[in-house]
Design a protein that fits this description.
The complex is a heterodimer of chains A (462) and B (193). By secondary structure, chain A is mainly beta. Chain A has 4 helices and 23 strands. The chains are: A mainly beta (462), B mainly beta (193).
């Protein structure tokens, strides 16, 4: 390999690693709206917010309702939009429903002091200490609309990114068949494709960018994580219609149809894909509480973060990006156009709970059918690079207020000349109160020890 | 002599009422905030009927709420629906046992009435205010009571004897059981979803 190209590759890798190291911070997802509604502690559903325990997962999958919920569990009396008996009169009259008794608003705030180190093109270390006060503020609203429907929305202010709609979803639960079997949601949300490892379900401050933010676009295939916030691997957030459900207490499925991957033109803001992508995931949980909250025949420990269980899942994502034009340059600056004719992702998810320990991880294999067009000669080259990404994370509850997490991430890019990305992430969390936590988190680029960051984070929700 | 004894016994039977006690106790409700508004009543007594009362019962519509929320009555009772609000109200029932009656709308201070002719749990709704709901429970005997929030109830003046006692609740499954009344009789029930 010529020296210039090797240098360019290295720069690209450093930049990618830097992006990964400084990468996105996990958006909030603990929703104190429900703590108020049920007059219950955050820890009913969270091991350490926003990470869910088994009950919290059942609560979420049940459309943010308690499993087998009874009226007495709901402490904030909802406002009736029609007496129960109006069911008898449908369709002569509007079907009855209810709305939350109070405006269901909650706020999450993160303050972070981030000390980071990175390497520039001349192999010099650049360090900075950044008071990100606040790093992020999230305004939530969430609740149920009668027996079947629910909603959740999140408006986020993020330092450097401004204000954005993080989520806005409408859910319908148990719309057909047995209880919990057929549910759907529509809107913008974190897809259940990534249940358990999308950023909103992690106890760490850093998300797993190597799973979500990989960019397959390049002259020889992708080199690392993307600058696009949603990446072009599997989406951390979708605008989609998703069906999901739990059968026989332990089998989980989700199938979704979504706008395609890749950047949305700033001029129109519309999805440039002529078609839609789709995704699916199928899980089975062995042991512990059922995914619908079923505890029949189970003698579960009183410590609600504990259980002995294994959940395994397979996932897939497929779509076409013929209509999306990506402009790239090679190492020498020559312009190329790239189209991702078809992208396929298949993966595996495993989560093992054993007493105070939760080890979980995911593996993802992606292929991209790329058409690379030399913008000068218009010569086309069709390639099909493949990449592999995986991580494993261990979360441990020392005592409920004190928890630790270790994660290893690995990404082998589609470009065979690009170096793999390997990251380590360590977190210590101190749950000062059920809704206030302090975190110390260290993330290291294992390929380049001068790339790291150390963050002290204060996060609270109310 | 025998004839005199027979007449004496007959006269005694006519002037001395049958011994009467009560049925009291608690209903435990599983799955609701409290246990108010359960109706505990003695079911039809074979060979015995009760004339419809002349006096009307009343349900008031005030502050966009039916008051009381649950009203047990003897079959044949006429219930007057009074509008005490400054807005117009309506009362209708979607239940066939109450002939799916619809009394129309009427202003403050006026009353419209309906006679409950059958054994019936009649849901009362107001088309003007969809959240309003009440129940008239028309039962075959005059022996009934509505539970308080703590589930306690007392049915007074029940003659001694063996009966079937039923419990109905707006949200929970109905139940029943045989009860032998001998003076003050304590009987507990449990109802759930």
């Amino acid at each position: 390999m010529p020296t210039t190209i090797r240098l360019a590759c290295r720069l690209a890798i450093s930049a990618a690693a830097l992006l990964a190291v400084l990468g996105s911070f996990s958006p909030a997802s603990a929703v104190p709206v429900f703590a108020r509604k049920y007059q219950t502690s955050c820890q009913t559903c969270h091991i350490v917010f926003p990470k869910l325990n088994a009950f919290g997962e059942a609560f979420r999958l049940n459309g943010y309702r308690m499993p087998a919920e009874t009226e007495e569990q709901v402490k904030e009396t909802p406002t009736s939009l029609g007496a129960e008996a109006y069911k008898k009169t449908w369709p002569s009259m509007v079907y009855p429903s209810s709305i939350p008794g109070h405006v269901p608003i909650a706020i999450n705030i993160k303050m972070a002091d981030v000390y980071s180190s990175s390497v520039d093109g001349a192999d010099r270390s650049i360090t900075r200490n950044d008071f990100q006060f606040p790093q992020e503020v999230n305004l939530f609203t969430a609740g149920t609309l009668g027996e079947k429907f629910g909603f959740l929305a999140e408006l986020t202010f993020e330092e450097g990114a401004g204000v954005s709609i993080e989520r806005a979803q409408f859910t319908a639960n148990s719309v057909a068949g047995p209880e919990h079997a057929v549910n759907f949601k529509v809107g913008m949300f974190a897809p259940d494709l990534a249940d358990g490892f999308q950023e909103m379900w992690l106890m760490t401050n850093n998300g797993i960018d190597t799973m979500f933010a990989y960019d397959p676009i390049g002259v020889r295939g992708g080199t690392g994580v993307a600058e696009e916030p949603n990446g072009i691997s599997i989406p951390a957030s979708v605008k989609a219609i998703e069906f999901y459900g739990v059968a026989k207490h332990r089998f989980f499925y989700t199938v979704g149809i979504t706008s395609g991957l890749g950047p949305v033109p700033a001029t129109s803001g519309n999805d440039p894909h002529s078609g839609k992508d789709w995704y699916a995931r199928f899980d089975y949980k062995f042991g512990g509480m059922g995914l619908d909250g079923d505890t029949t025949g189970k003698n579960l420990p009183p410590e609600n973060w504990r259980e002995n269980s294994v959940r395994v899942g397979v996932l897939g994502y497929q779509g076409t990006g013929n209509d999306v034009a990506f402009d790239v340059t090679d190492e020498l600056g020559a312009p190329f156009g790239v189209a991702d004719r078809r992208y396929d992702r298949v993966g595996l998810y495993v989560s093992w709970f054993w007493r105070d320990l939760n080890v979980f991880g995911a593996y993802l294999h992606g292929t991209d059918a790329l058409t690379v067009t030399d913008q000068t000669t218009l010569a086309q080259n069709k390639i099909e690079p493949a990449y592999d990404s995986w991580f494993v994370q261990a979360d441990y509850v020392i005592r409920p207020p004190f928890q630790v997490s270790l994660r290893y991430e690995d990404l082998n890019p589609g470009d065979p000349t690009a170096q793999s990305i390997r990251l380590g992430n360590a977190n210590f969390s101190y749950l000062m109160r059920a809704n206030i936590k302090l975190m110390l988190e260290y993330q290291l680029d294992l390929q380049e020890s001068k790339n790291y960051n150390l963050a002290a984070v204060l996060r609270f929700a109310f | 002599m025998m004839r005199r004894l027979l007449f004496s016994s007959l006269a005694l039977a006519l002037v001395t009422p049958a011994a009467a006690g009560d049925i009291h106790g608690k209903v435990v409700c599983k799955g609701t905030r409290d246990c108010a508004d359960a109706v505990v009543y003695v079911d039809a007594i074979p060979g015995k009927s009760f004339p419809a009362p002349q006096a009307h019962e009343k349900i008031n519509q005030q502050n966009l709420v039916f008051e009381p929320h649950v009203l047990p009555v003897l079959i044949g009772t006429t219930v007057d629906f009074l509008n005490s609000d400054t807005v117009q109200h309506n009362v209708f029932s979607p239940d066939a046992c109450a002939e799916k009656f619809n009394l129309g709308t009427w202003p403050k201070g006026q009353i419209r009435s309906y006679t409950f002719k059958k054994d019936c749990v009649a849901t009362l709704l107001c088309k003007v205010h969809a959240e309003m709901e009440a129940f008239v429970v028309a039962v075959p005997t005059p022996y009934f009571a509505v539970t308080k929030a703590d589930g306690s109830y007392r049915i007074a003046d029940v003659p001694d004897g063996a009966y079937t006692v039923k419990v109905w609740h707006p949200k929970l499954k109905a139940t029943s059981k045989p009860v032998t009344v001998a003076g003050a009789t304590d009987t507990a029930f449990e109802i759930a979803r």
